[in-house]
Structure formats: structure tokens, C-alpha cells
Amino acid sequence: MNFQLIGVNHKTAPIEVREQLAIPERKLTEALRTLVGVPGVNEGLIVSTCNRVEVLANTVNGSTDLRQFLTRYFKVDAGVYQPHLYEYRQREAIRHVFRVASSLDSMVVGEPQILGQVKEAYATARAAGAVQSYLDLLLTRAFAVAKRVRTETGVGSSSVSIASVAVELAGKIFGSLEGKHVCLVGAGKMSELAARHLLAQGAGPIFVANRTYERAQKLAHRFAGQAIRFDQLYEHCEQADIVITSTGAPVAIFRREHGEMFLARRRNRPMFFIDIAVPRDVDPGMNKLDGIFVYDIDDLQEAVSSHVEGRKKEAELAETIIETEVERFQTRLKTLHVVPTIVSLQDQFETIRQAELDRVRGRLGKLTPEQETAIEALSRGIVNKILHTPIRSLKSAAAGPEMTTLIESFHKIFDLQAKAAVSLQGGLGDGQKDDDSEQES
Predict the structure, then answer these.
(1) pTM, rounded to two decimals
(2) Exposure of 290 by Cβ count < 10 A (0-12 exposed, 13-18 middle, 19+ buried)?
(3) Could you give the residue numbers annotated as active site?
(4) Does domain 3-158 have CATH number 3.30.460.30?
(5) What is the mean pLDDT of the chain?
(6) Class at the top of the CATH hierarchy for domain 162-305
(7) Is 88 helix (H, G, I), strand (E, B) or coil?
(8) In this predicted model, what pLDDT tens digit does every residue of 261-284 receive, in sequence order?
(9) pLDDT digits (tens, 9 = 90+) for 105-127
């Protein structure tokens, strides 16, 4: 197996670049088909959030140009994103996946949303047939590592989040949030979280607009608010002091002319827009209007940085866990190469054991159940003792340079037939089960 990863995130690319590479959930399966259609790609997974777009692949030789996918799918001038791309291979790709799932690479270190988003991307890729074997092994281990990081460190203990920082900024603009009207445009998890923070600060009532009206009704009911139809958004939005928007629309839904209209109807009372969408829902030109305050995801990143000092020591501890887990995972991967040989060896000896038992039974006559059990146990015990040292030698050599030579020798000595397919999950050989876990905007 050969792991490769390319991507852009909030650290390497501004939102102007990320929004051109964002893939909406409804198009993710199509994008995965394009990815696995790239020559040399065996398996693929795509994570697309407001803070990152990453392409992970298991490739034939470890040197597949994954930029082919970006060129084929986005049809965007490579000069736009090329300077912002990062690329990792094998060990560094494994490490990056573990760090992302553990929220160590997030805008807010320790936030829980990114793990849920990676798991959703994994489920979509599996359903599309793009993840089957080695990526499945990598992702399930990443979820277990994320759980270990959350359990053994305090990296996720603080309540700081993009949503809480956005609400804090709103408080600075309005002084008090008591009685401030809120409009949620889009019914995503981050919007819902921001709304909860606003209500806790005394804001309300809440209006909810969503392209699916039933979903808007459901969320509005949760906040004792009012659902509005999406085609009536501009008629109602002027009532809102605070607008939280995250729709996944391909173009901005709030433009300068809308801001001018809102201000005129509100008699220049200020409006605060929290734009969590990528691509952005609010045209940057609206920020030039006196009385309109717009914060996009990158603006919020700057505000977040001042809140995360206390997590540095916990993050350092988490990084140590990640390094340990990367080494462990690589060792486990190397043992997979010897699993087919071990299985063939066991099958060979089991065939011999059964043949000898069948031959000797004819001379022993009718045996009691107790005698049958005793013979089975005796013969199995002999076979297991004979195989113990060869199997241990194979496992010990799995991570060494002599692995290939030793496997070839075993096949010649025992006349083994290599197994065409062996369960990756069943062939780890350490008796440990990967833990699952729970759920960056």
C-alpha cells in the first residue's frame, strides 16, 4: 500500500482559494468517482469543509500525481491553488490523517466537529466503493487515535469554538445581545451551535431560512423560533440584527445591494453577519457599508488564536500520542505482508493433519467421542508447537529488510500457495480492536 495526500487548508490558503476547491456534499460521490479514475489510484477519500479540502489516496506506486484529480474535476487554473497545496506521502500522510481526526490541525484545536466530518467523508467513500481495504484500515485507526487523544489529554476540554468566538464578537459590536433578533440562513451544525451561544447571551427571537422548508421548521421549533421560506429571505432578513449564514450555495446570496436595502429599511441600525460558508454566502463588498459588519471563517480564525494559549501543553501531549500511534500503525502495516504466507502455512499443516487423522482412523476402529476429542487436541497441539517458531520468525522479520527473502524461502521450503485475498482487519496479529469514536466546519 502507498498513502498519498494533497490539500489546502486554513493555514495554507485564504478563503478566496478554498472556496474554489470546495465540494458540496451532494457532489462528493461524483468527485470520488473522478478520483479513483485517476491512473494509479486504488482507493480514495475526500474531506471538504470550510477550513480544508483534502484528497487522500492509496496508490499503486506512491508517486501518482494527484493533481490530475484537481485538474479533471475543478477545471480551475492550477496557478490559483498550486502555491497553496501541501503534499504528504506514506508516514507523513498517516500522521496528517491522525492529526486532522484528532483536531490538532483545526482552526480551533480540540473542536469536535472535524472528527464527525471525517467520519461522514469516510462513510460516503465506503458507500461509493472508493474505500475498501488499506484506507479503511487507516481511517478506522484514525478514529481510535482521536478517541485516545480526547481521553488522555485535555485538548478538547475548553469551550472555545468558532461559534463562541463569533458570538463574542457580536457582543463587542452591540454591547449587549439581549433581545437582538437572529436569522439563521442554512440549518448546518455550526449555525445551530452559534445560535445556542446567542440564546445563552439573551439574544432572540430566532428566524430560520433553509432551502428545504421542512428542515427550517424543525430547527426553528428547537429554538422556539419562526421558519421562513427561502424565497422570502430578503423580505424578513431586515428584521435581524445578527445573521448567521452557511448554505453551501455556489455564489453569494447576500450582495452589496442587499446590504444597502437592509440598512435603508432599518434606518441604519447595524447588522452583524457571521459567514461560516465556503464558498462564502456574503459578498465581501458588503463589509464596506457603514453599519454592516461581516466576519467570514478566516476573520474568525484570527479572533480564535488569542483564546487557545491554554491548550498548548495539552496539544504537545497529544502530538506525542500521535507519533506513537504512527509508529505502531506502520509496524502493523508491515506485518500485513507476511499474513498471506502465515495463512498458507497454517492451511498446509492443517491439510496434512486432517489427512493423517483420516488415514489412522481406519486402523483404530470406532472411537468414543472422548477419544476423538483427545486425538483432535493432541494433533492440533503438535501442529501449533511446530508452527510457533516459524510464525514468530515471520512476524519478527516483517519490519526488517530480510522480509522478502524470508517469505520466498518459506514458500519454496513448504511449497506454499499464496493466498489471493486476506482480511486486513483480521490479519493485524496483535489481538487489539480499533475503537470507534463520536463525531471544523
Answers:
(1) 0.73
(2) exposed
(3) 50
(4) yes
(5) 86
(6) alpha beta
(7) strand
(8) 999 999 888 999 999 888 999 999
(9) 988 788 888 999 999 999 999 99
